[in-house]
Each structure stands twice: as C-alpha cells, then as structure tokens.
Specification:
This protein has a single domain (about 5-310), classed as Alpha-Beta Barrel (TIM Barrel). By secondary structure, it is α/β, with parallel strands linked by helices. The chain has helices spanning about 10-15, 20-30, 55-65, 80-95, 110-115, 125-135, 175-185, 195-210, 230-245, 265-275, 290-305, and strands at about 5-10, 35-40, 40-45, 50, 70-75, 100-105, 145, 150-155, 165-170, 185-190, 220-225, 280-285. About 45% of the residues lie in helices and about 20% in strands. Helix 6 packs parallel to helix 7. The strands form 3 sheets. The chain has an 8-stranded parallel barrel with strand order 1-2-5-6-9-10-11-12, surrounded by 5 helices. Strands 3-4 form a two-stranded antiparallel ribbon. The termini are close together.
Length: about 300
C-alpha cells in the first residue's frame, strides 16, 4: 500500500524574489507535515504566463533537500523526449528518488500548442509516443524510435535515473485514462467527484488487466485548488479569484471540485478520495498570506494522517 503524501504548490513566492523570504517559506513547509512540493508547467498560457516545470523542480529540490517534487503536469509533447530524458537524468543525480513526473496534454489554451509546433487535435497521441520514447530512453541503453512526430536512432542517455522516476498521467478524458493504464505508474485526477474518481480507478485496472499489465503499486493522486481564510466566505473569495485569473473562466465551473474553509473542512472533503486510493494529494492553496496557506495545508495533512494511520 502506497504512503499518503500531502503536498503544496511551489508558489511564485518560493521561486522568485528576496532569497531570505523564499528560504523561510520553503523551511516552513519542510518543517511541518507537508511531504512534497508540486509545480505546474506551461510555455505560454493565455496571457503569456508560464513556468518551466523541470527548472522549477531543480530549484525546489535544492532549496528543500529532503522533500520530493512532483511536476504536475508536464506538457511533454511540447518537448523532444531525448532532451527531456537528459534533463531527468541530470535531476536524478542531484535529487535521486525525489522527482515524480506528472504528464498531461494541456489543451485549455490551444494556441500554446500551436506556437510550439504541436497540432492541438493530435496532442494526445503525440504525448503517448513521447511517453513510450522517454521510458525507453531512461533505461540507460541505446534506444531508437520513429513515429509521425519525431524519430531518432541509437540515442543513449546515461546515467539512467536511479531509482526509477515515476510517471503519473493527468487528465480526465478517456485517452488520458488509457495512457495512465498502459504507460504510466498512476493517474493524477483533477476536477473529479469521488464517484467519478472511483470509476476511473476501476477503468484503469480493467484496461491494464486486458492488456496483461499489472503495476506493482499504482501511484494514484489528486490535484486541486483549495481556499483558506478567516471564514468560509473569505476562503472562497481567495480561491475563486486565483482560479478565475489563471483559467479565465468563472469559478462556478470548478467550485464543486475546490474545497474551501477551515483545514477540517478541506480534510473532510478529501477523505473519500483517500479511501478510494488517492494517496498523493497536490493541494494548491489560496488565502490571505503564504504563511496561512502553508499552515492550513500542514494542518490538513495532520488530520488526514491521523484519520488514515495505515498510510503513514
């Protein structure tokens, strides 16, 4: 049974600005009941916003040498798999066993795909080929691959990441679910009800079994935004503003998947997912201060670990 891991987002306040402030925030997370950081990845999202997931992973693993960093999710199809394999090899040397790569297809902003030369309509199959190529490249032996999107012969990337870097697949579409079942080490759910989450896990197990694949231990997770504040209304206002700014759509579209309020209320929302197998929780908090956000996630972690001691 996998261990319960509660993570918070590697925020802009941790990744830029005054170094003393950044170090204090990272230490605040590391010294409490927070297990990992997770970070997003975009090239040019909507208004030109972006962040390079692997560069930020390198920064955070250096600033927090005892914490895992999950890239959730990396837009793999926007890069060449040989280049990504080299980056992961380098990261695994400086932070062995502390990187988890979440892989997604994006799609909320089709222009982001287009400017990178990727056909938005084919980004799913493109990502599947990238994953297959990347897994072969990370074995440390010569590898060749040919598909509609790229080709290479006798590529060799050494050293191979040790231990293995888990690849978890994010997304809600059938293609993403199949990709998780056949190519990944787990599924990273987003904007999913508990009922839907249970159905997807069953679907992944069925697909894997049909293709003769049995994962030693799935690393399923859940990624969501949460709101904190002095009261429930204030908590809602912070998470609503953050999501609307980022996704450019009304918060009401996400509200039923985005808990807000006290740490106890957020933990209560998450408990059914943990029971269903979501043992890696990526929580992106919004609140009146970065310190309050971190303290809330730490308290959520303490509540859940007390509720599920067998996952400790």
């Amino acid at each position: 049974m996998s261990k319960l891991m509660i993570g918070t987002v590697g925020s802009p306040e941790m990744l830029s600005g005054d170094m003393a402030t950044r170090q204090a925030l990272v230490k605040r997370a590391a010294d409490n009941a927070i297990d990992h950081f997770f970070i997003a990845d975009h090239i040019s999202f909507h208004t030109g916003m972006g962040m390079d997931g692997l560069i930020n992973a390198a920064t955070l693993t250096t600033m927090a040498p005892n914490m895992t960093v999950l890239v959730g999710v990396y837009l793999l199809a926007l890069r060449h798999p040989v280049t990504v394999a080299r980056q992961l090899s380098s990261l695994s040397q400086s932070a062995p066993g502390r990187i988890i790569l979440g892989i997604g297809v994006g799609g909320e902003d089709r222009h982001e795909m287009e400017i990178c030369g990727v056909d938005p309509a084919r980004r799913g199959v493109h990502t599947t080929h990238c994953m297959r190529a990347l897994k072969a490249l990370m074995q440390g032996t010569p590898s060749s691959y040919s598909c509609d999107f790229f080709e290479f012969e006798d590529a060799l990337i050494k050293p191979a990441p040790k231990p293995h870097i888990p690849l978890v697949v994010g997304g809600r579409a059938d293609g993403a679910i199949k990709r998780a079942a056949l190519e990944g080490d787990g599924w990273l759910g987003i904007w999913s009800s508990a009922q839907r989450y249970a159905a997807v896990i069953e679907q992944i197990n069925d697909i894997a079994a049909q293709h003769g694949r049995a994962a030693d231990e799935w690393q399923h997770g859940l990624q969501l935004w949460v709101g904190t504040g002095a009261n429930k209304a204030e908590a809602r206002s912070y998470v609503a503003a953050g999501m609307e700014e980022f996704y450019q759509v009304p918060f009401e579209k996400f509200e039923r998947y985005s808990p807000y309020g006290s740490a106890a209320e957020i933990a209560e929302f998450l408990m059914p997912y943990v029971e269903l197998g979501a043992h890696t929780l990526n929580l992106a908090p919004r609140g009146p201060s970065e310190e309050m956000c971190l303290d809330t996630i730490a308290e959520v972690s303490e509540i859940l670990k007390k509720e599920f001691p067998a996952l400790g």
